[in-house]
Amino acid sequence: MPDPVSPPVSADVPHPAPPADAAVAPVGAPAERPRPLHAPDPYSTPPYGEPGPWAPAPPVQHPRAAATPPAVPPGASSAPLPVTQAPHPAASQIAPPPVAQGVPHPAVPHGTDPGVAAPVPAPVQGVPQGTGVAPAPLPAVGTGGAAPHVPMADGGAGAGAEGPAPWRNYDPWAASGPLQLNGAAVPSRTQRRRKAKRILIGGALLIALLSGGVGGLVGAYLERNGGMVDVELPQAGKEPNDRAPGTVAGIAAGALPGVVTLHVRGSEDQGTGTGFVLDGAGHILTNNHVVEPAGKGGEITVTFSGGESATAEVVGRDSGYDLAVVRVSSVSGLKPLPLGNSDNVQVGDAVVAIGAPFDLPNTVTSGIISAKERPITAGGEKGGSSDVSYVDALQTDAPINPGNSGGPLLDSKGRVIGINSAIRSADSSSDLEGGQSGSIGLGFAIPVNQGKRVAEELINTGRATHPVIGVTLDMDYGGDGARVGTKADGGGAPVTPGGPGDRAGIRAGDVITEVDGRPVHSGEELIVRIRAHRPGDRLELTLERDGTEKPLTLVLGSADGD
To answer: Is 405 a catalytic residue?
Structure first.
């Protein structure tokens, strides 16, 4: 008769036969619990890799509440309870689980009917069928036997449990949280931020290095190839054209309208020179050697700074002073230049020269007064004494070249203080345009005081007068001073009877050493000193006679110039 306290069994599920060498547990003894195939893992580390013969995967433990038979009231029938058969899927839908090699079957408790199969547990939710995972061991069924140990879902034990089994706590299919796929430590939020910061800093440095390198290459390319766009350079804006009156630009702006360029053509010669306007009537002052090539039948063309041209004619000229006056007719809007006073000029004063050097009109140069009362002689190429010019000149370092002759030398106020006439060239002596080597910084100008007197005489009478002392000089004398000759040209007396020298007491053979206290070293220098004065001026002379110095006073006479 069946045990009334035994749980119902399924008739369709065969009970596995115990192995031949399995030990039979004595009646009433607790059933022996299956032992794990490996030592318990205190860290609950899941097994890795596919199961092998040396380490089979442990079976998944799914706890199930133990079946407790209902209590039988007293007097109830002892008939066996109806067996409840759990529904099973079709046999074709159930795949037998594979049997792991070397895994022993659990022992069947003593007293269990081997012909009665234990109830088959329901399929575990979440466990795939046919995956090769061994099912959980079934509880032993018997009469009078103790209830087998049933592990709980939280690792505890059921009735009769001896304690939790650590190796049964892990369920790889349980939804207990995200699995850690490796053993590396999970970085914290601070570590992740630091790592991201390092990545950003490294990336920024890398970008900076790359940008610097690329920028350097691009810069070098642009520098060598002039850039990829058109170059536009910075430039100052438009400024007023006015300049201060005392500057070179201001002086030139005020004087240029009154300066002209002369083109002279003759039957045998031609040349270029400069002149400046004296008055509104069209009188222009220039050098004699500028207009000399025209002679009596030549042509003189005057060109103004604005480009207008007009024909000019000679009013008068004097070779001894190297000055000439020409006139243009039917020209309006003339701008005469103001005249200064050459006696007020001091060495070191700033000056500006305007002319047409080498036929380059409206050329402006500047410099200073290098010296005053510099006696020079120029001309005389034809051999006559009348062709020699004697100039008590102003010396300047303003560049003066061939073509500047006759142009104005201006002071800092734009007033004419001299007429540029001669240069010292490197391959010749002092000469009016003597040589074509160009300026070496030694230019000479006729003082405007002398030029004014001569210009007035040429305009008024057509001729200029020369101051004279009425003696003939020995130009071959090699000593210091100017010696009066012993005979005159043509056999006359060396001292003109009744002339200024005769009245002052000069005799033949006297040597004049000073004029107004200034030393005289040659006959040419005495002539220069005399021509620097007007006729009628009084001079104080010092002369030597028979080894004795003798002072005397002389009043200059007048003679017509050539």
So the answer is: yes
